Amino acid sequence: MSSTYGEHLKLSIFGQSHGAAIGMTLDGIPAGLPVDMEQLQHFLNRRAPGRQDFSTPRREADRPEFLSGVVGGYTCGAPIAAVIPNTNTHSGDYANLKDCPRPGHADYTAQVKYGGYQDAAGGGHFSGRLTAPMCIAGGLCLQWLAGKGIAIAAHLASVGNVADTPLDPMTPALSAIGTDFPVIDPAAGHAMRRAIADAKTHGDSLGGVIECAVTGLPAGLGEPIFGGMESRLAAILYGIPAVKGVEFGAGFAAAKMLGSQHNDPFAAENGRIYTLTNHAGGILGGITNGMPLLFRVAVKPTPSISLSQQSVSLTRLEPTALVVKGRHDPCIAPRAVPVVEAAAAIAIMDAYLAQTKF
Amino acid sequence: MSSTYGEHLKLSIFGQSHGAAIGMTLDGIPAGLPVDMEQLQHFLNRRAPGRQDFSTPRREADRPEFLSGVVGGYTCGAPIAAVIPNTNTHSGDYANLKDCPRPGHADYTAQVKYGGYQDAAGGGHFSGRLTAPMCIAGGLCLQWLAGKGIAIAAHLASVGNVADTPLDPMTPALSAIGTDFPVIDPAAGHAMRRAIADAKTHGDSLGGVIECAVTGLPAGLGEPIFGGMESRLAAILYGIPAVKGVEFGAGFAAAKMLGSQHNDPFAAENGRIYTLTNHAGGILGGITNGMPLLFRVAVKPTPSISLSQQSVSLTRLEPTALVVKGRHDPCIAPRAVPVVEAAAAIAIMDAYLAQTKF
Amino acid sequence: MSSTYGEHLKLSIFGQSHGAAIGMTLDGIPAGLPVDMEQLQHFLNRRAPGRQDFSTPRREADRPEFLSGVVGGYTCGAPIAAVIPNTNTHSGDYANLKDCPRPGHADYTAQVKYGGYQDAAGGGHFSGRLTAPMCIAGGLCLQWLAGKGIAIAAHLASVGNVADTPLDPMTPALSAIGTDFPVIDPAAGHAMRRAIADAKTHGDSLGGVIECAVTGLPAGLGEPIFGGMESRLAAILYGIPAVKGVEFGAGFAAAKMLGSQHNDPFAAENGRIYTLTNHAGGILGGITNGMPLLFRVAVKPTPSISLSQQSVSLTRLEPTALVVKGRHDPCIAPRAVPVVEAAAAIAIMDAYLAQTKF
Amino acid sequence: MSSTYGEHLKLSIFGQSHGAAIGMTLDGIPAGLPVDMEQLQHFLNRRAPGRQDFSTPRREADRPEFLSGVVGGYTCGAPIAAVIPNTNTHSGDYANLKDCPRPGHADYTAQVKYGGYQDAAGGGHFSGRLTAPMCIAGGLCLQWLAGKGIAIAAHLASVGNVADTPLDPMTPALSAIGTDFPVIDPAAGHAMRRAIADAKTHGDSLGGVIECAVTGLPAGLGEPIFGGMESRLAAILYGIPAVKGVEFGAGFAAAKMLGSQHNDPFAAENGRIYTLTNHAGGILGGITNGMPLLFRVAVKPTPSISLSQQSVSLTRLEPTALVVKGRHDPCIAPRAVPVVEAAAAIAIMDAYLAQTKF
Prior knowledge:
Four copies of one chain form a homotetramer.
Chain A: E1 4-5, E2 10-15, E3 21-27, H1 37-47, E4 65-68, E5 70-71, E6 74-75, E7 80-85, H2 107-114, H3 131-146, E8 151-159, E9 162-163, H4 186-201, E10 208-215, H5 229-237, E11 243-248, H6 259-262, E12 266-269, E13 272-275, E14 283-284, E15 287-288, E16 293-299, E17 309-312, E18 319-322, H7 333-354
Antiparallel strand pairs in A: 1-2, 2-3, 3-7, 4-7, 5-6, 8-9, 8-10, 10-16, 11-16, 12-13, 14-15, 17-18
Helix pairs in contact in A: 1-3, 1-7, 3-7, 5-7
């Protein structure tokens, strides 16, 4: 575990927010898979900061350099390694965090775990910036899965108290999700942006819920018990900073349903088995059933806020009022949307590769 | 993955519901840890069927036989293996399931994955009965963690539309949870039992939400990114059949909070650092912060119901009305409460052992 | 690691020599593979004690009970679990070993590692008896690989100073190996038996070298660097007690050859690529090249001998003369031959399953 | 497996010989361990090419750039990533290898495994150059183990038919190994260099045996069965290209000894338990016994030789005479000495970290 993920593919994420570079290695990918660097950059740009009114003004290109594993536009069978140099760092902004931990951040737990040796600048290895290498790996997996007819897309189900139109669990219209701002209903998108701008004005922040659907999945992916798709997906989704909840299909709402309501009846048409509803979110017994896979992720409000907060001095063990400096998103959820897609793609690619033929 | 779990400890679960036996192996446990077999049996009895009005009348003792790893009341350093023979099986009840999959069950996905070679009887390896070996491993971990002052307890936060008093995130009163029926508020317990009995009368089933708290945890458990406590816990909790949602601390509610509300301010008292609220559920950056760890798990309604349901014949590919026979819990949530505790104990024991000293 | 092995399949070995049972779980095996129990028993009998003049008189049937994973003669996709009850134990024979460690055994290192909590009886988890569950897993893999045209057989290349005819690296005649005593040259076999009987008479013991060949392997098995076939095979072969050396192809002799002698020239015939010699033992860059895979394993002399030996009392820290009681093989190498075959089969099965198609 | 190693630490090696860079990530290292970059560079220089008469004239600095994990001279708890850019590549030298595989190389097996998508230039991911990142990881582990009083050193036990004085298994004089050329006996060193120069003159190559000892190890490292020190060490040592044999302690010679000769008698002195001989090479039951750990590694002759060799055209399937161009070591064994030390250090560090306290 730690900063590695995967059963058959092995993803290893490294880097600190203000170190020399962040990056990833991805081992276990078959040779001969095409890599479209332009499409990957387009995907990474969706996560990159500094591009939208609602995100941090820290602007970095997030241009990965591939060190290995891709030759002539195709995977060569060797591990793929890619790095993104850190160019625009303001470490001075974080000088006081080692003594005075930011509420809602990993500053304190890192201090306890690493005994003061942690790289505190910019959150170090715990920074949301580490989702960029996850997006390199996930962006590649998205391309390869697309080649199998598997599409993955997420939208902002809600930001604060503003809700978007939910995806239809039976036929999620992935293409209806906006490319500029990831919502289905443009009016909801405008209201979300307003709410985010409002929170920013008050020096505060907002959370949100991201809903993601996967279509085109074959039935039979996943393994029993701890190898189920829910376990695989949740394990990587909780690797995204700020995620505090994950639910599949009807999720927590299922707990209030009757069995007769929740069970998805089976039907057959033209030799294809399907279900008439999709409360299961496309997963039965941990294994895909061929219906759209559907899950939602709760993202907490950005812990870095401009308002003064109560903290303590770890050396003097006395109360301190903390004002977090630096550049921060008032709502991380919009930029987390492609990260959720990336995480889902990695988990599904891994489950796909874990299938055996003998 | 598949049916194994763990980074430092290695838990492997085996067995099919109507096979010769179910069991587990647990490798990586240090030598010299005491094992109280009576206390373990007491814990297993909480999960065992046939003991309560709300559970399946299938009655099996769930008495584990330890084959290895425990000598003279202490772990000996070798892998621990324990089995529970299956004695009370009615395989005839399941004869038709291989052709006609039960809605909400793994019958169909197992058929696709294993091409007809799966053990369909009683749900085979996908049966809820496989939570018994998980409880052997978890019951042992609970004892060992208790020796470190770490207590884990869960209750039924809700069954259907009936809610129990929630645990206080700052000082969860674990001892206030009933031993007869796992709720804090006895009136809520009565209402839940009535609702379950009512569902049973109608041939239907109910779901529920289980809330679990862990107290006495040291700060510093867990690893960054994919090794965080949320990833570790979610990965094993989703290994419990019927779990469709997992959230930590404020969870999905966090998505509607402002950062200034959600962030838990730090304070210090007598040299101890703590937070004034606990919306984080005791986890920051994936790592425990010394506050109570708190999470909730959504359990779907039991898919096996007596009402006639629509399914298909997999061979004839035509609609079939299915009436599920066999003995089933109208609500699995009460018996899942100790399983959630067991799963949490395993994940925490693993995170504990994964800590290194050099 | 510890007592588990495998990348795609997961083998877990448990049990102590004089505990209730020994056994194994084998996860990750595809569904639908046939299991011939009679053939498996025949294979296990080759390892079982008490059947030959050169082996320990402890006689146990080594009859595995399958608890899960096999239904109607086929794997069902769920983990396979099998146990062998321990019936014929004389724990009294080992009462003094906890204080006075046997030279050449794990008694002392187990004491240090487990602090006195180890199961010392019969060597506990370190006993050669733990190779029986390895043979259950390996015996199954041998059957499945045979179904792919892959044959694995080993013989005693030497016992003490008596050498058998070596296998031809280009066309190893696996069927020429004796079924009664695993040698190619019957005269060498007689000389080996005499040497073993002679050592026994003197209360002493002998070692040996086991040579193993695998034919019918496709080219392309194995992964680069740490996933090479040599790493995979060596890791499991060193899991067999008493193995102290492993070499592939020309092995240590390669260190004395010139490159022009050692390099195997490539040739082509009827569209098939092969090499004109096989000093590489069928492995180039860790990956099979389609030639016979060939390796040798050095087995040390049985450490349990009847002669008086010098040891120490761990409590009194003073010299003690030790006479090992109990029943022991004067040479373990003959019974280790099927274990080596089993280990090779497991490693090859794992490498086979680790191949991905996308 | 594949290009990752380790149970508690996770080492991932990436890069191709003529790609942009080679490198490694090392996860699971505790925070606060000191890193001496100068000492590391000194260690890497021992492996680096172009520095000695017996090695390839390809000259590259092998200067690692640390991207993460080290801050202010100490590990920070986050994964360590380091890269070495490839600067001096002559890919044109390898243009014909994709059609005409070099005998003794991975060219053919890579072609089969990766279907023509492999990076053939310079051996790609199979190049001996990939031992440089292994030396980064191992060089760090050597420093940390040295801080615990654990010393690891190797020498050339033989090159071709020239043998060095062997290390004394009881008190291996690690400091007696030459720093200029890794032998104990300078005369043997001169004879080895002459033999290598002679092979080079003839367009041929030599192999060798490397002997390595580890002193200062505590008793109790390693785990039973597949987690034994021999399994751990062999798995990583076989990850070094050209290694074809690994033996521990008396190794293959043990197979010719009597038990009464091979067993190491126990003794006690001043409260310390030790053995009077060390045929076990410091490992009993897979677990260190506190005596020097001793092993030998067989290195095959460099497959790249200037002499014309027989190969085949993979496209035309007909014989081809191949003359390997490029720059190659006539004997790789001298430069492999620090790689063996590095591999041993990684395996021992991993075993050290895998120890648990509870």
